[in-house]
Amino acid sequence: MKTLKLSIVAIMAMGTCSFASESLQEALTSGTYEGALRAYYFDRDIGHGTSKGSIINLGIDLDYESNSFYGFKVGFGFQSSNAVNADDDGKKALSWDMYGNGAVLSQAYLSYTLSKTTLKVGRQYIHLPLMQSSGSRLIRQSYEGSTLISNDIPDTTLFVAYVNKYQNRTDGAGKIADFADLTGDYAYTTGVINKSIPNTILTVAYGELDESYDMSYLEANYKNKYNDISYGLSAQYSETDYDNSNTKDGNFYGLKADFGIGGVNAYVAYAEVNDGTAQWGVLGGGGKVVLYTSSIIDAGIYSESEQYAIDVNYTFQDLGLKVGARYIDIDFATNYSADYKLAYTDYKFKGALKGLTASLVYEEENHDLDANDFKELWAKLIYKF
């Protein structure tokens, strides 16, 4: 509540601006709606049957944002999940990310925009470096707090996000997770994204999870084309410093080279995690700050190691079909090693089924320690409207 009150005061202090709707009623009734129907099938096998099971989940997303009235908008977002086919093994194996029945109001915010700067207060999805609402599972993660994003400076985005509550995917006991207080009092991230150098995106970000750790992130991403050939070079670096002196600080860096011609796209990547254990973000799963050598399902290894990855995919433009494969090799500082093999495909329907997409991902890890081996299959059917 303290964060909400301070943010509302900040909004009022920013003054008024020209408005799109002539009345509050018009602003509320002329807003935008969007939604999605989702059907997911997950099959998981960790440690050769130590944790093994499958699940079918059905869900619906509904999002609404009002039209602007003196620069103000309100927004709401609703998510639901229903496990229609999960035995005891499936409930246990997927309890932490997929087995959660129920519904949650994931967005309920008030925003104010002045020029190209927007302040948003309340429950919201956040997509910023170091703080991400991962949507890889049926239920998307959300936050409660405030975000301020400004694009008033040409080719530059300035951002800050401060949150004190977090909604995960499930509660681990068969229900969708509700908003809960953080381990500490707060989490925040701030930084800048700059595109003033042609074909280049520079990202600088810093964040902290109270009573846990703080981290910084730097990235340079260059992409260009020569005739029908696309190519790119990227570099990333991050440091994680833990509040607990018994936890060893860590850092990582990564390098990636992209290449594409026609429907073929490929990349090779290298990464090294040094000292202790690094983090991919301040709060939330997945997102923009991921190792270039990461897999799709397991999301990446951030313990001390040396990693290599290669990915090749092909897009059949006329069909709306994409198929690809990825291989990752990891050498741990503990002298163990592991490799990942991935195959994936996406298909976008056309005509009467426009808006419907289907995807498959199969991923397996072969580790020197059998307990760390896993195989997992994701099948997703999504209709957006």
Automatic annotation (TrEMBL):
GO terms for molecular function, please? porin activity
User: What are the UniProt keywords, alphabetically?
Assistant: Signal, Transport
GO CC field: membrane
The source's superkingdom equals Bacteria
Query: By its UniProt entry, which Pfam families does this protein fall under?
Result: OprD (PF03573)
Record carries keyword Signal: yes
| Family annotation (SUPFAM superfamilies) | Porins (SSF56935)
Gene3D superfamilies listed in its UniProt record? Porin
Please state the span of the N-terminal signal peptide per the UniProt entry: 1-20
**Would I find Flavoprotein among this entry's keywords?**
no
Fetch the InterPro entries from UniProt.
OM_porin_bac, Porin_dom_sf
Which family does the entry's similarity section mention? Belongs to the outer membrane porin (Opr) (TC 1.B.25) family.
What name is this protein filed under? Answer: Outer membrane porin, OprD family
List the source organism.
Answer: Halarcobacter ebronensis
